[in-house]
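User: structure tokens for this one?
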Amino acid sequence: VAMPWLLTGRPVDRYRKAFLRLTRARTRRMLAEHGTLVAEVHADYREAVRWLAWLGFTLAPPRPLGPLGAPFHQATMRAIP
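Assistant:
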């Protein structure tokens, strides 16, 4: 199991198609190497939630996480055996 995470900035907005293409390819490589990917994403960060769904992650309903109980989705992707 791997727990990928990503921080982005303005270049992602300028090169959106390249970002999507590269992250899809990298996600496939990580999945092939590890078999299962698990991440946490703040439920209010709609762009990130949509991106993870687009990549093929399954998103669990939001649940409180951390000391302030902020709503987070667990995003999971498993390799097909």
